[in-house]
Write a structure and sequence with these properties.
CATH architecture of the largest domain: 3-Layer(aba) Sandwich
Radius of gyration: 26 Å
CATH superfamily of the largest domain: P-loop containing nucleotide triphosphate hydrolases
Largest sheet: 7 strands, parallel
Strand order of the largest sheet: 9-10-8-11-12-7-13
CATH class of the largest domain: Alpha Beta
Structural class: alpha/beta
Helix content: 25-40%
Number of helices: 20
Mean pLDDT: 88
Strand content: 15-25%
Number of domains: 3
Distance between the termini: 94 Å
CATH topology of the largest domain: Rossmann fold
Number of strands: 20
């Protein structure tokens, strides 16, 4: 008689419990824990160059699942479900989070419950409804797509629940507040001054007002009990939330079930995206710059790449320098700086000149511009040390001007500053950051009564020697890849540094 063998298959299971609004807790067999540990680990960008990795004190991974505690970010719930499904593991969901989607009737009733002179576009409507239904998400919507109006409607939906809006800069605190005033102008039931509190600088942090707009810097040192009563948190420009300080704030919001992140762009690093999704929720693409330009919601943009070509003798010397030394050479190069300023002088319309280093570059450019520009044209100098009120005044003034020049640092004006009446942008300093470049370009995409198109002048430097490209030329190549991927039209011009003229 033939022996019959019976095998018993053990179905692996994961018990998922809710610890708070920040963390889930996963209980499972040791083998499954190890799988989760490997599944939710990623190399951060350039990890191989980090000192801890080089000293072999770190394996180069960021782990999002803690094997000892079983903790994992709540916002990764969908990915946990996918992990279990792909392996045919049984996932026992004990979070008891029942989500009921808002009906068409309920949503329409909400939209018509208060007046607003600013009409929602279809994609904004979709983003608002998606956020309400999902409760947690990252809204990926490009610069100038109207994220502040989306935020306003979300605030109104949850009002009078206590809400926290976190922004990266002082300027954005004032700007978001001003936007709210404009949106609520016709609404007698919602007085911005009565319900909205601004925190920045030396402003009082304790308030009875249900809505707070603050920079993350102003919140960082506050005690945990400050965050207890918040139910809604909105993180504007959420791509910056990879910083430990911002992550700490989000972890303190243990009782906030509604978490919405907004951003114009994400970098290509998977770990960055997963941390954001862990803190907020799954990413939702709202629209794209290409779509908005095609529909003429945004201005079109033309990019002129101006590659300054240096002599072989200069290139030979630069080839021996490290990255920072090359940067110092370029920002201090008198002919290069004169060329940039003469270029700006010859442009018509409001122009934004972006630099990286204040003392070594920004001050120099500003001084040259003040010397060569006619006194009838207004010139503004804005950097991190410029107070929030002054930044807002500059923004308001430029909106009324036709031929003003703003000489500003990337850190202040590449993110969050909304100037509709901006015609030209000049990249005066080398940069390869995808986020920074797209955010900077976004400054010129807003339409105004006097503008249908904008022009970006990308200044780069060819110091190649013996077939090897210099550091900043490689950065320029990365920027061109960004322009290509975003379908921005661009042309490349090579200009010998010795024959630079007053204008292009």
């Amino acid at each position: 008689m033939e022996e019959i063998c019976c095998r018993t298959w053990v179905i692996m299971q994961i018990i998922m419990e809710k610890e708070n609004e920040v963390y889930l807790r996963l209980s499972c067999e040791p083998g499954v824990k190890m799988e989760l540990n490997h599944y939710f680990r990623f190399h951060p960008k350039d990890y191989q160059f980090m000192p801890m990795f080089r000293r072999r004190k770190w394996d180069g991974y960021v782990y999002l699942y803690n094997m000892d505690s079983g903790r994992i970010y709540y916002g990764l719930k969908n990915r946990i479900q996918r992990f279990a499904s792909d392996r045919e593991y049984k996932l026992i969901d004990q979070t008891n989070d029942s989500i009921e989607h808002i009906s068409n009737e309920e949503y329409f009733k909400f939209l018509t419950s208060f007046p607003c002179e600013y009409k929602l576009r279809d994609y904004q409507n979709n983003a608002i409804r998606h956020s309400i239904n999902e409760r947690r998400c990252v809204l990926l919507s490009p610069t100038a797509s109207g994220k502040s109006l989306i935020i306003y409607y979300l605030i109104r939906y949850y009002f009078p629940e206590k809400s926290l809006i976190i922004v990266p800069t002082l300027s954005l605190v004032s700007q978001m507040y001003s936007d709210f005033e404009a949106y609520a102008k016709a609404d007698k039931t919602f007085e911005v001054e009565k319900f909205v509190h601004k925190i920045f600088g030396g402003q009082e942090k304790v308030t009875d007002k249900p809505i707070i707009i603050s920079t993350w810097q102003s919140l960082y040192e506050l005690k945990k009990d400050f965050y207890t009563d918040f139910k809604l948190v909105i993180g504007d420009e959420a791509h910056l939330y990879k910083a430990k300080s911002l992550t700490k704030i989000m972890k303190n919001l243990e009782n906030a079930p509604y978490r919405i992140g907004t951003t114009g762009t994400l970098d290509d690093v998977e770990v960055h995206k997963l941390i954001l999704e862990g803190l907020f929720g799954t990413t939702k693409r709202v629209t794209s710059t290409r779509e908005l330009i095609k529909k003429k919601t945004l201005s079109s943009i033309a990019i002129r790449c101006l590659v300054l070509k240096y002599s072989k003798e200069v290139a030979a010397k630069i080839s021996k320098l490290n990255y920072q030394e090359e940067i110092n050479f370029l920002v201090g190069h008198s002919e290069r700086n004169k060329y940039i300023c003469n270029l700006v002088k010859g442009l018509t319309g409001n122009t934004l000149v972006l630099f990286q280093l204040i003392e070594k570059h920004g001050n120099i450019l500003h001084s040259i511009l003040e010397e060569i520009i006619d006194s009838s044209r207004k010139i503004f100098f804005v950097y991190g040390g410029t107070d929030a009120d002054t930044r807002e005044k500059v923004r308001e003034l430029v909106e009324k001007e036709k031929d003003a020049i703003i000489c500003a640092s990337y850190g202040v004006y590449s993110t969050g500053i909304n100037i509709r009446n901006l015609h030209n942008i000049v990249f005066a300093s080398p940069s390869k950051s995808r986020i920074r470049n797209l955010q900077s370009i976004g400054r010129g995409l807003r339409k105004s009564d006097t503008k249908e198109a904008a022009t970006l002048y990308d200044i780069s430097d060819d110091l190649s020697y013996n077939g090897k490209r210099n550091y900043t030329l490689n950065h320029f190549i990365e920027r061109v890849k960004i322009y290509t991927s975003e379908y921005f039209p661009y042309h490349i011009y090579t200009i010998p540094i010795q024959t630079i003229t007053d204008s292009l």
